[in-house]
Structure formats: structure tokens, C-alpha cells
């Protein structure tokens, strides 16, 4: 539950920016087309921080322990969150989004690693589902807090919640599997081990690729839903915060459904395949259906969120595929490389947009992510019954 609450605060901050992007930028003097270009710049800075932080916290999790990451990451992003509420220029905003990104990168991987190692293999899927579901509730909470309070106060609330959570973590115990591995003379947290062995590298790459559709939807279709609404000719302007809130409401139910379905079918791969196919259907509906009514558009955003509900399974597979001495490194870097993939995906989207238009550009990029995910999933190992008490050599 402590890991789950940490991820709730993590996701609150991560998606608060999507909710307050337009009002916060307007408040510091950004107008017109710069709202989109500066918004993409800030998003890229946040994601760049998560890429760097993912590597740092992942290595730290295997070298120093899962708990050190849970403490350090939440302290950093809580302070950065408070700083975000004090910005007055785009430059300040960009720097603090980068720092926040570094801090946000450690929470999910360390939490999932700890949960998978503490719980018996028969029920660890339930544990990671709880963590992921609580995180998505944090994204929904960001919408309601931003609706009730000024954007600066919303950032202060996130920082305060994070600092309060540090108190709860005092009595959390370290993973026994990590303590056991620490006593052995094995190389822990060596990032090069993921690249100096072909089998390990391909497993690592497959883990990243199966998560790409999730962040194509979140980072492009939902974050920039106002721009898509305009391109699709909707009857009313889209409120980005509402689209984010509804998408993550859908993801709450998707995460619960995929988690329980995985336990019922005793398979991670079958359920992820189902949700990737669902995602492809709803991406096509979002971009191609002749929908003009704003309510129908919001319903499609909710369904897209539901199809994104394999996030918990995706991170769980990453943790289960590798030994104890690399598990935190993988479980922390993989979701952050997927998040960071928004940078090249957004770049491709903006590259194609002038020549083929907003909708066709999104179709091309979305089709690419879905194809890569399906190919990677086909070759991926099933991990549902895998014993995690081993090390990589």
C-alpha cells in the first residue's frame, strides 16, 4: 500500500502538467501557437528527465536497495513539484519539469520490484494491479484538484502529499530477495549486462516495445486532445484536463480488468495481446470516426484509457523477466524509456503533420507503435509462473 500511495502521488504530478499546461503557460505570458510548441518542449524536458532518472534510480535500486529509491525519488519530485508552483518563465518551468521528471522516474519501478519480490508468485499480479490502479487514481485526482484550485496551488498540494508520504515509509522493510542477492558476490545494477548478452538485450527491447502504444495514446492523443478536437471539427473545444481525467478513469477499470483477467487465465501475454488489439480499435475510432459531438469524443477518450489498462502487466513482465541483481534496473528503466519514447513519437508526429495533416500524422505514428508492440509480444516469454529468486550472470 505504501508503494501504491507513492505511485498515486507520482502520477498526480506527472499528469498535473497535462491538465494545467494551457492555463499555466498563459499565466506566464505564453499565447497563440506557442501554447502547443512550448507545451511540447516542456513535455520533452519532463520526459528527458525521466529517461535519465530511470537509469539512475534503476541502478540505485539494484545497488543500494529498493527502499532507497522509494525514499529518494519521492523527496526529489515533491520538492520539484513545489518549485513548479513558483515559476514565472518558460525556462524556469522547463528546468523544474526536468528535475521533476528525474524524481518521478524511480517510483513505479522500485514499487513494482518490491511488490513482486515480497508477494508469492500466485498473487503478485494482484499486488502490482493495486499499485498501478492507485497510480491512475492519482492522475484522476490531478484533474479534480486543478479544477478546484489555481494551478500553482495544485502543484503545492502534490509536493505536500509527497513529503507527507515519506513519514509512512519509515517502517517499510526491504525485499528479502534483494538482501539475499546482496550477500552474494554478483554484479548488481550493471546496466551494461543488458547490452552485452543478445538474449537479455532482446528481452529488454521487447519489454519497451510492448508499452509504446500506451504512451502514444497518453502523450499525444490525450495530452494534445484540444488540437485533435479542432482538427476533427468537434462542436465544442476539448478541455485537456477533462480528457486526461476520463482517459485515466477508463485506465483504472482497464488495469483492474487486465490484472484479474491475467490471474484467471494464468497468462500475462494473452491479456496484453487483447488490450493492444483493443487499443488499435479505439485509436482508429478516435482518429477516423465521423464524431462531431463533444460528449461522444470524451466517451472515446475513456475507452482509449480502458485499452491502456495493461500498464501494470507491462511493468510486471519487465520485473519478472530478469534476475534479482538486475530487476530494479529493468523495472525502472523500461517504463521510463517508454515514457521517454514520447520525444521521438512527438517529433515524428510534428514532422509528418505539415505534409499529411494532424489526423494522418497520428495514424502513421500510432500504426508504427502498434506494429512494434505486436511483433515484440509475439516473441516475449510468458512469466506468470516464473520463480523470481535467481540472479543474472
TrEMBL record:
From what superkingdom does this record's organism come? Bacteria
Signal peptide limits? none
Return the InterPro entries for the record. Answer: MFS, MFS_dom, MFS_trans_sf
TM segment ranges? 40-60, 67-87, 93-114, 126-146, 152-172, 201-224, 244-264, 271-289, 295-322, 334-352, 358-380
Topological category with respect to the lipid bilayer = Multi-pass membrane protein
Q: Where is the Major facilitator superfamily (MFS) profile domain?
A: 1-384
Keywords attached to this entry: Membrane, Transmembrane, Transmembrane helix
Q: Where in the cell is it found?
A: Membrane
Q: Does the keyword Methyltransferase apply?
A: no
**What PANTHER family does this protein's entry cite?**
CARBOXYLIC ACID TRANSPORTER PROTEIN HOMOLOG (PTHR23508)
Q: What is this protein's record name?
A: MFS transporter
Amino acid at each position: 500500500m505504501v508503494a501504491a500511495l507513492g505511485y498515486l502521488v507520482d502520477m498526480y504530478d506527472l499528469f498535473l502538467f497535462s491538465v494545467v499546461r494551457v492555463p499555466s503557460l498563459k499565466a506566464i505570458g505564453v499565447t497563440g501557437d506557442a501554447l502547443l510548441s512550448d507545451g511540447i518542449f516542456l513535455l520533452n524536458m519532463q520526459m528527458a528527465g525521466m529517461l535519465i532518472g530511470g537509469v539512475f534510480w534503476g541502478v540505485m535500486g539494484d545497488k543500494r536497495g529498493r527502499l532507497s529509491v522509494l525514499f529518494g525519488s519521492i523527496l526529489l519530485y515533491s520538492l520539484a513539484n513545489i518549485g513548479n508552483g513558483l515559476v514565472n518563465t518558460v525556462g524556469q518551468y522547463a528546468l523544474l519539469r526536468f528535475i521533476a521528471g528525474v524524481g518521478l522516474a524511480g517510483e513505479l519501478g522500485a514499487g513494482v520490484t518490491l511488490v513482486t519480490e515480497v508477494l508469492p508468485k500466485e498473487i503478485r499480479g494482484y499486488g502490482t494491479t493495486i499499485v498501478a490502479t492507485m497510480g491512475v487514481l492519482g492522475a484522476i485526482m490531478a484533474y479534480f484538484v486543478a479544477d478546484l484550485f489555481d494551478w500553482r496551488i495544485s502543484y503545492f498540494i502534490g509536493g505536500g502529499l509527497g513529503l507527507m508520504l515519506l513519514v509512512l515509509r519509515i517502517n517499510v522493510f526491504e525485499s528479502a530477495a534483494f538482501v539475499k542477492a546482496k550477500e552474494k558476490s554478483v554484479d548488481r545494477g550493471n546496466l551494461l549486462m543488458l547490452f552485452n548478452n543478445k538474449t537479455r538485450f532482446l528481452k529488454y527491447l521487447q519489454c519497451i516495445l510492448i508499452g509504446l502504444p500506451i504512451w502514444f495514446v497518453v502523450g499525444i492523443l490525450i495530452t494534445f486532445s484540444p488540437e485533435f478536437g479542432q482538427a476533427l471539427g468537434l462542436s465544442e473545444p476539448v478541455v485537456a484536463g477533462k480528457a486526461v481525467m476520463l482517459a485515466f478513469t477508463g485506465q483504472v477499470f482497464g488495469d483492474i480488468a487486465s490484472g484479474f483477467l491475467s490471474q484467471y487465465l494464468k497468462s500475462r501475454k494473452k491479456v496484453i495481446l487483447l488490450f493492444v488489439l483493443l487499443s488499435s480499435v479505439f485509436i482508429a475510432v478516435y482518429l477516423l470516426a465521423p464524431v462531431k459531438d463533444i460528449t461522444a469524443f470524451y466517451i472515446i477518450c475513456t475507452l482509449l484509457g480502458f485499452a491502456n489498462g495493461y500498464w501494470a502487466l507491462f511493468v510486471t513482465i519487465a520485473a519478472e523477466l530478469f534476475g534479482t541483481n538486475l530487476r530494479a534496473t529493468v523495472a525502472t528503466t523500461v517504463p521510463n524509456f517508454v515514457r521517454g519514447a514520447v520525444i521521438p513519437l512527438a517529433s515524428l508526429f510534428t514532422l509528418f503533420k505539415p505534409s499529411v495533416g494532424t489526423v494522418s500524422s497520428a495514424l502513421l505514428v500510432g500504426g508504427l507503435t502498434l506494429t512494434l508492440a505486436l511483433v515484440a509480444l509475439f516473441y516475449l516469454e510468458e512469466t506468470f509462473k516464473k520463480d523470481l529468486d535467481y540472479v543474472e550472470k
